[in-house]
Structures are given as C-alpha cells and as structure tokens.
Amino acid sequence: GPAHLFRLAGKCFNFVESTYKYEFCPFHNVTQHEQTFRWNAYSGILGIWHEWEIDNNTFVGMWMREGDSCETKSRQTKVHLVCGKSNKLAYVSEPTTCVYSLTFETPLVCHPHSLLVYPTLTEALQRKWDEAEQLLYDELITDQGYKRNLKEIFEEAGLLKTAEENEVEKQSKKITPEFETVEKCSKEYKQLSEEIKKLRVLLGQHGIAYKGNSGE
User: What is the pTM of this model?
Assistant: First the structure.
C-alpha cells in the first residue's frame, strides 16, 4: 500500500462509545473491550489486518478479517480512511451483525493523490496496467475484462488476497487445534478455575447452593 501510511504501523487509536472501547492498530488488528464490571464482559478481536478496499483504482479502506467467531462466521471490520486534521478514530458502527465499520481520520490521506494505487506498484505491474489501458482503449477487451486484469494486478501486488489464499486461510483455521501448546492450555485452565471460584463466591453471597461433580 501507500508507503507514507506505514508510519501508522505500531500505533493504536482508541474510541469510546457507550460502554465499549474500540482500539484500531493499523496493519495489525481491531479490538473491542466492554467497559463494565460484569464478570463476563466482552473483550475480543473484531478483525486482523487482511487486505485493502480498492474503489475506482484508489485505496479507500482497510479490511480487518478473521476476528473472533460470531455464530457461524468470523467478525470483520472495514476501516474507512478520510482526511482529518489529526490521526484519530472518529466513528464506529455495526451496519450488519458482526460486521463493523470504523472511520479513521488522518492528514496522511488529504492530498488528492495520496491514495492512488498506480504509484505504489512495481514498474513491471505498472506496465501491465498500461497494457490493460491500451487494450481497453483499442476496444480489444471489455470493461469487465479490464477490471478483471486490474484485480489480478492488485492480487499480484499483494494488495488483495487471492481466492486461493482465502481458501487456504479457511482450511488452516479449521484444522488448527484450539490449544496449540500445553502452556496455553494450562493458562486457559487457570483462568477458568479462577472464574469458577468467583462464581462460587457470588452464589454463596446470594445464598444459592453449589453442587459440583467429579468431572468439574
């Protein structure tokens, strides 16, 4: 993508709305943390840096995909890049269930040419684009063929994930065990044990009897 946006890498930007705190870390991930004292307050990943959103041959946003599971799918977030006086997360919404929309303001995208795709490509890929333009001009390919050529160029440049890459990611996610290491399993077990202790105390405070079993 645009080299001048790389200075955002390694930084994170927060936005608080109602009882939720959202954190956007460009080229890394988007997370959501429920600001409440509930014992099961939600804290999780809404998406991991995946690919660019390109419209009219211009970078218009970043797609953060493969977040925490949500029913039968994974949470995902589209981050819209808009011109602003400072770097800040300005707005968050959830247009459809588990698909989030973030608006990120930054002076880095205010120049009219700051988000053009063509200048970010290698000379070889720029030549391919020039050839596609010529073919379209000579009416040797249709608009649809031209768009398909550009999509292939964007995929070759690594700006978009190919269908094969997306499939590999899905398959690897299916076969990855829940706990990759004994250490991680032990850590999760410890956290759950602590949670059970807290719940026992809570039940005791409300005079509710707790009966465990041998498989607890």
Answer: 0.70
